[in-house]
Write a structure and sequence with these properties.
single chain, 370 residues, Rossmann fold, 2 domains, eight-stranded mixed beta sheet, 12 helices, 34% helix, globular
Length: 370
C-alpha cells in the first residue's frame, strides 16, 4: 500500500504521524511511504533520518495526498485540506467528529474511509490510541493550570504547593479516567490539595487505593461538583464519552460562585468540552477570562510537547496502521473488532454511533458495509 504523511497545519501543532522507526516498519512490511519535506522537524526528526528509513520525500502536501492510499496524520484535517478528500482514501488520525459537523460532512461527501484514533477500542474497553495523549494532556493540565494561576495571566496569584505557613491550592478534577488520574498524580506530587470526582464508584475506589489520604474522592453529581468548585483554585475537566459529545459538568451558573482568578483547564475541549462556558483556544492565545475565571481550552494540548507526544502516540498507532496497510481496511475490520470500532466514516456513510447521535445523522453499522 502507498502510505502518506504530511506536515500538520493546525496552530502550533508540531507532532507528526510517523517517526523514522515507524517508516522502517512500513517499508519492511512491503509498503511505500511518501513523506512531506520538513513534516518531522517540529518533533526533532530530520528529513535525512526519514530518507535513511526509506521514504520518498515529497516537496508539498498536495502531492502526497494525491499519491497515497492511506494518509496517516495526528490531528483532524482542517478546511483547507478537505479538497484532498476522495473516494477510497483511508484516513488514519484523530478526528473528534462529534464536535465538528463541518469535517463530518466533508468526510461523508468525499466518501473517505476515516479511522479515528480516539474511537479504537479493545475488548477490555481500553482506548489504546487515545490513552497516551490522555496521559500527556492530564499531566500538562496541571503544569499549564499552575502557570495560569500566576497573577500576570489573570490568575489569583497562588502557588500550587504553597510554602510552609501558607495555604496550598485546591485542585478539583472532574473525571477519574486516564486524564484525571494523570492530572491527579502530578497535582499530588506538587503538594496541592486534590479532590477528584467520578460517577464510577469502582474507579473512585481504585483512585483511593492509589493515592490514599493524599486525595478526596467524591461521587460526581451536581451538588458535589458545585460545592467543590466554590473552594477550587484550579479545576481540570477530564470527562470522556468515546467518540461522543462531552457532558457539560462545569456549568456557567457555577462561575459567579468561584474565586476570582481561579483557573479552569478543559482537557475535553476536542470533543466539545465539559464546560458550558468553554470555547476552543490555541497555543497562540490559550486563555480567556469569563466572570473572573481563567479558561484554558487549547484543542491540541499535547502539541506543546511534540517529541514526547509523537513517540508516545506512534507507539500505540503503529500496529493498527500496519494491519490496515497490509490487509486492507475491510479485511482488517473483519479480523479486528478494535479497528472496526475506529471506523467513523466509510464510503459516504457514518459508522460511529456516538457521532451520529451528536449530529442527528443516520448511522450505519460498519459490518453491513464490509
Amino acid at each position: 500500500m502507498k502510505i502518506g504523511c504530511v506536515k500538520e497545519i493546525k496552530n502550533n501543532e508540531y507532532r507528526v504521524g510517523l517517526t523514522p522507526d515507524n517508516v522502517r516498519a512500513y517499508v519492511a512490511a512491503g509498503h511505500h511511504v511518501y513523506f512531506e519535506k520538513g513534516a518531522g522537524v517540529g518533533s526533532g526528526f530530520s528529513d535525512a533520518e526519514y530518507v535513511e528509513a526509506g521514504v520518498s520525500l515529497i516537496d508539498n502536501a498536495a502531492d502526497v495526498w494525491a499519491l497515497v492510499d492511506m494518509m496517516i496524520k495526528i490531528k483532524e484535517p482542517l478546511e483547507e485540506e478537505y479538497a484532498f478528500f476522495r473516494p477510497g482514501l483511508v484516513l488514519y488520525t484523530y478526528l473528534h467528529l462529534a464536535a465538528d459537523r463541518q469535517q463530518t460532512d466533508a468526510l461523508l461527501n468525499g466518501k473517505v474511509k476515516a479511522v479515528a484514533y480516539e474511537t479504537i477500542q479493545e475488548a477490555d474497553r481500553s482506548l489504546p490510541c487515545l490513552s497516551p495523549m490522555s496521559q500527556i494532556a492530564g499531566r500538562l493540565s496541571i503544569q499549564e493550570g499552575a502557570k495560569y494561576l500566576e497573577k500576570r495571566f489573570g490568575g489569583e496569584g497562588i502557588l500550587l504547593a504553597g510554602v510552609p505557613g501558607t495555604p496550598k491550592a485546591n485542585v478539583v478534577i472532574l473525571g477519574g479516567g486516564t486524564v484525571g488520574m494523570n492530572a491527579c498524580k502530578i497535582a499530588v506530587g506538587m503538594g496541592a490539595n486534590v479532590t477528584i470526582l467520578d460517577v464510577n464508584l469502582k474507579r473512585l475506589e481504585d483512585l483511593d487505593n492509589m493515592f490514599g489520604a493524599h486525595i478526596q474522592t467524591l461521587v460526581s453529581n451536581d451538588g458535589n461538583v458545585e460545592r467543590a468548585l466554590r473552594d477550587a483554585d484550579l479545576v481540570i475537566g477530564s470527562v470522556l464519552i468515546p467518540g461522543g459529545s462531552t457532558p457539560k459538568l462545569f456549568k456557567r451558573k457555577y462561575l459567579p460562585e468561584m474565586k476570582d482568578g481561579a483557573v479552569f483547564v478543559d482537557v475535553a475541549i476536542d470533543q466539545g468540552g465539559c464546560g458550558e462556558s468553554s470555547r476552543v483556544t490555541t497555543h497562540d492565545d490559550p486563555v480567556f477570562i469569563e466572570e473572573g475565571v481563567v479558561h484554558y481550552c487549547v484543542g491540541n494540548m499535547p502539541g506543546a510537547v511534540p517529541r514526547t507526544s509523537t513517540i508516545a502516540l506512534t507507539n500505540a498507532t503503529l500496529r493498527y496502521g500496519l494491519q490496515i496497510a497490509s490487509e486492507g481496511l475491510e479485511a482488517a475490520c473483519r479480523k479486528s473488532a478494535a479497528i472496526r470500532s475506529g471506523v467513523n466514516t466509510y464510503d459516504g456513510k457514518l459508522t460511529c454511533q456516538n457521532v451520529a447521535l451528536a449530529h442527528g445523522l443516520p448511522y450505519v453499522d460498519i459490518n453491513e458495509l464490509i
